[in-house]
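Re: that chain you flagged

S.,

Sorry for the slow reply, it's been a week of failed gels. I finally had a moment to sit down with the sequence you sent. For the record, here it is as I used it:
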Amino acid sequence: MNLSQLIKSSTRITNTTQSLLDVVLVSSNSLVRRSGVLNTTISDHLPVYVDFKLKSRKHPPHYITVRSYKNYSPSLFITDLARSSHDSLLSIFNDGDVNSMLDTFNQTIQSTLDSHAPIKTVKVRSRPCPFVTQDIKDLMKTRDQLHRLYLQTRDDLDWSNFKDARKAVKRMLKDSEEITIWMKFSDIKTTQALFGKLSIKPYHQKFFSSVGKNAADASIRLAEEKNITVEETPLETVYMPSQDLFSFRTVTSEEVRRVTASLPLNKTPGPDKINSRILKDCLPVILGPLTHIINCSITSHTFPTAWKEAEVIPIVKDGDHEVASNNRPISLLAIETLNIFSTDTMLEAMDKKELTALVLLDLSKAFDSINHHRLLHKLANVGASPATVQWFKSYLSDRFQSTRINSALSDPLPITHGVPQGATLSPLLFCIYLNDLPSVSRDSSLESYVDDSKVLLSFPLRQIDAAIANLERDLHRVASWCCENHLLINPGKTKYMMIGTRQMMSKLPTDTSISFLGKSLKPVDSAKDLGVTLDRHLNYDKHVSLLVSSCMNKLCQINRAKNSFDTKTLSEVISSLVISKMVYCSSVWSNTSASNVKKVQSIQNFACKIVTKSRKFDHVTPLLRELNWLPVDKLLYFRDASLTYKCVNNLAPDYLCNKLIKRSSIHDRRTRTHDSLQIPLFKTAAGQRSFTYRAVHIWNNLDKNLKDCSSLKIFKVALKKHLLAKDNI
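Prediction finished late last night. Pasting the structure tokens below so you have them in one place:
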């Protein structure tokens, strides 16, 4: 093959042998500048190297603009701000325009801050390994010197000294890595999204700024294509007595001080680049002007223009990050109680020998496509005063948005639809916008959690034809409402299920499909609803299988790096990344089969062995006791009991609390069961799997000292202690 071997010296050297084991073969020596063997102690094989005569394209350096806090002193900054900016801050009280006030406020702080924490453009350099300290580097040099000495002397004592130094380096590296990782995890307060090498494309910014309008326009086109009647006339406002209307009130300096002091330090500042750290430092100086600006905004019904400029950072949800539609903000929310309410409804229908049709609606870009005009009318309808509506009109109008990726910032483009992403008021405004959606359906029930909505209809098998017709009519009403309110339903992602017992499902007709927006929806065997995978019989087999697969995959990755963590940090990592996922919405699926609980137990067993750094076949029960972990069956019971306590003490949503009825509310007789709950009447095992039934039995069987706990925290501590003691018997 006309290949040349470049390596000529030994690549593995011990105290007894020298071998040439690592070779480099090339087809042309003319491309080789030099080659050889490096005398290092990275491993028992010496590394080989080849320097080719090749030209590589250098990447341009990456620069970022940051404030330098190297010489920043809070006390000096406050003193300078109070002395040099006294007149400009006082002028805010004499200004009648809230925008002018805010401009003066920002410019005053920024000009003073520039002299204490100047803005600099710095070159991004690769960071050195954080846990390789100078002491470790010195020991590495000593190790390498001992290795070179042995190569010269071939003395057994020199070889022994080299091995001792090598072991010491490995031990110090391991200890230093553990300490470094522990310190980093101690500083982490929130989960941050990290970006790779991305660059802004013009279509990214165009997509993000127009996504709401595009979705709203698509809903109108959909209505035209499907002959859905859309009412574009202004909504009729329901007038209320003035004393019943909601109005903003002015705030006090103490309220502003308290809110500012509670701001987290790790949040990115807005376009004004004044972060919460600076606001907290100079709060004694700016408290009066800041309070005046806020109150002026309220009394003049005007939201400052400078606070309407937003910077969005795209987060990849799925697929290619270069495709703009694959980038969006993602939030994970706990919605266990609504899932329980829905599944209990379906289990109660099974108990009555009924089937349930479930349609999971998919609303595209719901937050971004809200029509401002309709939102303002709905605010008035729910009781906002005219002045409050005017303030919200100012808050929503004339907004601009830029897209930031690393240090690159796009030009701003106007936002004509939707509510601001990440703003405190946005979820509330969205709920008000969707407030009348559940009243649209007539024969079925509609439940919503933010932009996730579902339609349920329970019926006996003999009425299936009428039920499907009623369901289609209700879905048409929902689609009509969405089009009228400029919300786009995606029929391609809408899921339809039939849910019932095995006996009832076996009697279903072959074709139970429904028509929705011109598409025929056929029943699917399973679908994900608010993070829980539902199946046709609500036995959660698929949910548990997916859960075990996902958690085991994460645990395998953690297991590879477990030696880099101390026990406490390792336990926190596994609790955050695995156990939290394992018990997500557990009160929904804790009624699953014993075999499924055993599968979930395998997750906890693996996690326990990783934390304790035990061997594969070590018995797990003493390890769980060592960590004070409840086994999965008792952990599920613990979480069910905690939610039951919240329901009994009105700490949960009303739709769950109202299902648990105390016997004392039925009769006034003082008996031993006076503080117990009324047992609901269910005829079948399906009904007895409902949370309502299980919660009643859990509460009635609790010891009185647990029922009498004065707070949820005390209840949880006492119950866990009780379960651990019971497990150790």
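What I noticed first: The mean pLDDT is 83.

Talk soon,
D.
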